[in-house]
């Protein structure tokens, strides 16, 4: 492979950066809200699973 010079590299970086399509403000807000809701749902789910397993471990240890 041919090595590129630093100038060519910078030109390639600029060309690729021009291709980037940034999300709109509305898309960013919608995605952020979705992520926050999913984070709350999953945290409650994992809290429930952890609580159930905690009770199971306490019950098993009380048998010994």
UniProtKB/TrEMBL annotation:
It is a single-pass membrane protein. GO terms for cellular component: plasma membrane. InterPro entries: SecE_bac (IPR005807), SecE_sf (IPR038379), Translocase_SecE/Sec61-g (IPR001901). GO terms for biological process: intracellular protein transmembrane transport; protein secretion; protein targeting; protein transport by the Sec complex. Keywords: Cell membrane, Membrane, Protein transport, Translocation, Transmembrane, Transmembrane helix, Transport. The chain crosses the membrane at residues 32-61. It is found in: Cell membrane; Membrane. GO terms for molecular function: protein transmembrane transporter activity. Belongs to the SecE/SEC61-gamma family. Component of the Sec protein translocase complex. Heterotrimer consisting of SecY, SecE and SecG subunits. The heterotrimers can form oligomers, although 1 heterotrimer is thought to be able to translocate proteins. Interacts with the ribosome. Interacts with SecDF, and other proteins may be involved. Interacts with SecA. Essential subunit of the Sec protein translocation channel SecYEG. Clamps together the 2 halves of SecY. May contact the channel plug during translocation. This is Protein translocase subunit SecE. The lineage of its organism: Bacteria, Pseudomonadati, Pseudomonadota, Alphaproteobacteria, Sphingomonadales.
